[in-house]
Amino acid sequence: MIGQVFRRELLLAWRRPGDTLLPLTFFIIVGSLFPLGVGAEPALLRSIGPGAVWIAAVLATLLGLPRLFAADQHGGALEQLLLSPAPLALLVAVKVLAQWLTSGLPLALAAPVLALGFGLDFRDLGVLLAGLLLGTPLLNLLGAISAALTLGLRGGGALLGLLVLPLYVPVLIFGSGAVQAAALGFGAGANLSLLAAMLVLAVVFAPWATAAALRISLD
Amino acid sequence: MFGPTLDRLAAPKFFYPFAGRLLPWLGTLAAVLLLLGAGWGLAVAPADYQQGDSYRIMFIHVPAAWLSMLTYMVMAGGAFVFLVWRIKLADMLAKTCAPLGAAFTALTLVTGSLWGKPMWGTWWAWDARLTSELVLLFLYLGLIALRGAIDEPQRAGRATALLALVGVVNIPIIHFSVEWWNTLHQPASLTRMAGPAIHPAMLTPLLLMIAGFTVYFVAVLLQRMRCEILEREQQARWLTELDAP
Amino acid sequence: MLELRDLAAVRSNTLLFRRVSLLLHAGEALRVTGPNGAGKTTLLRMICGLTEPARGEVAWDGTPIGTLGDEYRARLAFLGHQEGHFGDLTAAENLRLAGHNVAPDAVVAALELVGLGTLADQPARFLSQGQRRRLGLARVRLRAAPLWILDEPLTGLDRQGVELTAHLLAEHLADGGLAVLTTHQDLPGLDDVLRQLDLGA
After folding, report:
1. Which of B55, B62, B96, C4 could form a disulfide with B51 if both were Cys (CB 3.0 to 4.6 A apart)?
2. Residue of A154, A163, A191, A198 to mutate for B, most B C-beta atoms under 10 A
3. Concatenated DSSP letters for B181-231?
4. What CATH number is given for C1-75+145-201 in this structure?
């Protein structure tokens, strides 16, 4: 059952490469807006670099969130998901994992490339990548709750964003903070550990909250 | 389940007159505490040796901040009770708390800004507390927006209750992360808003103001819940139809 | 055995129905009728466990479905207004990846049975409404669940499709299954057998 849902999700993402690549493209575009907005002075870019890349990652993730349940909702398959005998939280976790693999992970991997545009050191790129590898699944997990709550509502993406961005604040702070700390010589360990801890908590609680939200939204 | 008294209280039919009887007392008490606190704080308490008279905005800022957090806790409590035990009054409580909490948070931000201007020369400083309050405001606005976006009352109540609980779990994390962020970026020499210690002469009026704000909050809460009860009674004819012969 | 105990439904502050009580045994089918907005779909969703009743409960073999949880869901197959297919997957893939273990031959056989054998590799979004309905029926059948809950299963079907549905339903009931369905159309061969529930009354 679980395996089938996972395979289905990957298959669906594969069939719609545009949908899957859109957040990635958006990520690059938003990241590129920063130098255009603040000027291309190298020292300035190096200092805003980590934050800018993280913000672009957050916004790009936000863009892809509605897709998590859109296909199911559109065809009535969401009801089928809720009616399956497997635990809903587990099914949700699998869906989020599939979404992360197809859009979150590419974001994390593309980030160092974007970060080069901001003039970050190679060592800092490593911290950025590590942070995003921990952070992007976190963003997807938290975002799933908001996507489930706002299923089918007016205000769509903007409402989803309003609900989830406050929850993203710690992720942004620790993720970006890790790179900044490393750049200052303090080491990224503390920030990355906090991200990891948040990720563990989110893996345990977020699918369960998302499942509850789905039941509420489909009542 | 909570004992007969609380059970009865949870029924709107009994809550309405009960709250109505409490209101005049609460209103008077709030007025007394606030006048006393404000008078003392604004006129009697000595000027701060560092900040002069401008610190007096603290008598509004600190209680407002306290209330902004308290309101969220009360709302989260109501949300939990509603989700688990389906008590409609709890949903009304949570619904009423959201705009109140947003108002207290906004008041905290405005007074914080007014306090900050003479201290730091800017209308906004990204210090830990104000930034936390800002995120709290977004949480409140999200709750209000979500409830407004859902037409079906049952779904609206449960969805906002879930969101409130997700929020309450995240508030300590957000607060911690903002403090963390603040120490990373602000030099340690910057004065904290509350000052190194509060002079006892300032403490009493502050406590009076906090108490007054809290009583005021309870009063407004009860009053608005009564309005909410009336509104829902009007719309819920189905309650009587359900039990009609 | 499906039991409806004193069910009531409220939507948007309107009472849809109340005091719906019924006992459905193996081999029996219930046909729910009523005007638009009477709450037929809501009732079906309540039986599925998707919607919570304003009052009363649904029980399976004596136990409330809320307590049974996953156990109950393993025993039901639901076909809603929207059939629940993924537009980007082919008909065969929709059946194969529907969530329970089915052999590939079973998928092919099911598609043949409902007359979609030639469309096995067509993405579901290119199917007509009637074809999607048939695919949904195939999925329900493959599920091999004792309780079938079908919301307007005959919509968009031609006469052949209607007869097919009636035939499959009769087969299911003969095997000891139960069914609850909404439809205003006639089901050839079954109309006398079906128990009726009119929500408009």
Report:
1. B55
2. A163
3. HHHHHS-TTSPPTT-S---HHHHHHHHHHHHHHHHHHHHHHHHHHHHHHHH
4. 3.40.50.300
